[in-house]
Design a protein that fits this description.
Largest sheet: 6 strands, antiparallel
Strand order of the largest sheet: 2-1-11-10-9-8
Shape: globular
Order of helices and strands: HEEEHHHHHHEEHEEHEEEEH
Radius of gyration: 19 Å
CATH architecture of the largest domain: 3-Layer(aba) Sandwich
Structural class: alpha+beta
Distance between the termini: 15 Å
CATH superfamily of the largest domain: DD-peptidase/beta-lactamase superfamily
């Protein structure tokens, strides 16, 4: 075990950060790893969003979706209200708005607690029943509901759930078999959450992203899509690593990195300039504390490779 990884473990121990597993790769090789107990499949929370983004890139390539596709193109619900102050209705929300989380809701729909208590089984219908609060496409507001609607839109466009659509195109080529991914009451892949994989499996996804969609000589997802998805598409107003901007279902990071992340400390950090991937699985609210430990303790490892 490297002294950098030892330093990381010491830091998370001293700060009582509940980290389960870490994988550190560079140039496709495993440099170091640590498991507190054993690496096992755990729910990845919002890292699921970044997988959904890969499905979108494939559907765009196949001509099944367009970036200016709207919810109204796929969902024809009665009584969708107009928004406040003559704003557009949710029918006019574009795929590009949803990918950047700029749908125009002040209070994002379909958070986990709301999903658990919602009587309406058709979550897409519920989402579209809510008025917008501002012009779409202009302001970032983190919204799992936006990603769920991406999943619902893709299912309407392709005839397959996001999970089933990705299985032969991404999961199986990456060697991620028998995937479990939670669904809505009507069988729509959550998209925004609910994917169960191990940290080692997540590290394969990270390496695939670093290689811009190329895996064992096959281009699984268009490189141009991954470059766009992992570049800043909209500004964010958070602090530290949450203020670096947002792409298409990916966060920008300091140190020229980007990441997929999930609530309670699932992290898939890509550092293109160092050809490096860092994947972490945790059950910890202080995600910035984990990332600070990465920057302080793990990042110096790469300068010596």
């Amino acid at each position: 075990m490297s002294k950098q990884l030892q330093g990381f473990i010491q830091t998370i121990t001293e700060q009582q950060l509940n980290v389960f597993s870490i994988r550190i790769l560079q140039k496709g090789h495993l440099l170091d790893h640590w498991d507190r107990d054993r690496d096992q499949r755990r729910v990845q929370h919002s890292i699921s969003k970044s997988f959904t983004c890969m499905a979108v890139g494939l559907a765009l390539e196949e001509g099944l979706l367009q970036m200016d596709s709207t919810l109204g193109d796929y969902f024809d619900y009665d009584h969708v209200p107009l928004s406040h102050h003559s704003l557009p209705s949710s029918r006019e929300l574009k795929l590009s708005d949803l990918l950047r989380m700029s749908s125009g809701h002040d209070s994002p729909p379909l958070w986990a607690d709301e999903r658990a208590s919602l009587i309406e089984k058709d979550w897409a219908k519920y989402y579209m029943s809510l008025p917008l609060d501002r012009i779409p496409g202009e302001q970032f507001t983190y919204s799992s509901g936006d990603t769920f609607m991406i999943s619902a839109m893709l299912q309407a466009a392709t005839g397959h759930t996001v999970k089933d659509y990705l299985t032969p195109r991404l999961f199986e080529p990456l060697g991620i078999h028998d995937v479990a991914w939670e669904t809505s009451p009507l069988g729509v892949t959550l998209g925004c959450a609910g994917l169960w994989i191990s940290n080692e499996e997540l590290s394969r996804f990270g390496q695939f992203l670093l290689q811009e969609g190329l895996w064992k000589g096959t281009q699984l997802v268009p490189a141009d899509w991954i470059r766009k998805a992992t570049a800043q598409q909209i500004e964010t107003t958070g602090s530290a690593d949450w203020g670096e901007g947002y792409g298409y279902q990916f966060w920008m990071c300091s140190h020229g990195a980007y990441r997929a992340d999930g609530a309670y400390g699932q992290l898939c950090i890509i550092l293109p300039s160092r050809e490096a991937v860092i994947c972490i699985n945790s059950e910890e609210e202080n995600m910035q504390g984990i990332m600070n430990a990465v920057w302080d303790q793990i990042l110096p490892l790469y300068s010596h490779q």
